[in-house]
Amino acid sequence: MSTTELPAGHAELMDGVYRWQRHIYDLTRKYYLLGRDRLIEGLDVPAGGTVLELGCGTGRNIILAARRYPEARFFGLDISSEMLETASAAIAREGLSARVKLAKGDATDFDAAALFGLASFDGIFVSYSLSMIPGWEKTVTAALAALSPKGSLHIVDFGQQEGLPRWFRSLLRGWLRKFHVEPRANLREVLDSESQRTGTTFRFRTLYRGYAWLAVLGSHRD
């Protein structure tokens, strides 16, 4: 499919990309979506806490997080109906439907109260989705606005592969473009700016020689 033949809307685009891929997504992505499990381990959800995943995809991450934090409630948002169908089935198979609620929505502009009946969350995480979202900076702003005062936003995504060979970077970028993925070169700067704007703490780590970046925007500074 050429660029001019792609669906006009982002939701239609994502449904088109993942209509068939969703069935093998988790089998293939585990080899190169690195750092996701480290993000989940770092959520540190309190008992009875609430956690939202933006761009929940097939439900892989939200299922692992729900297992890791059995006393918390989880909520997932995705713009793709195809992915939500797969995620819902996976969550039901795991017997987690009572603790995990999904909704279709735009991560750059969502109404948490209307979708989930909650105004804020103790934790929000975004795993390898910012690199696929047009206007991704708005997702960061929206996520911070939906955090409780002591909540934290966790992000993992492709870095700039700054410590890896140039040939590897070139091959990876070419592969990612096939799936409309673009690593965000200014991710750290945007997150730092948002941290300053909202008065929240900010931690940033490079993983695997810059293959991936992991960030946490935490509670408000004293």
Automatic annotation (TrEMBL):
InterPro entries: Methyltransf_25, SAM-dependent_MTases_sf. GO terms for molecular function: methyltransferase activity. The keyword Methyltransferase applies. Pfam families: Methyltransf_25. SUPFAM superfamilies: S-adenosyl-L-methionine-dependent methyltransferases. Its EC number is 2.1.1.-. Residues 51-151 form the Methyltransferase domain. Transmembrane segments: none annotated. It is an enzyme of class 2 (transferase). GO terms for biological process: methylation. It comes from the Bacteria. Keywords: Methyltransferase, Transferase. This is Class I SAM-dependent methyltransferase. It comes from Mesorhizobium shangrilense.
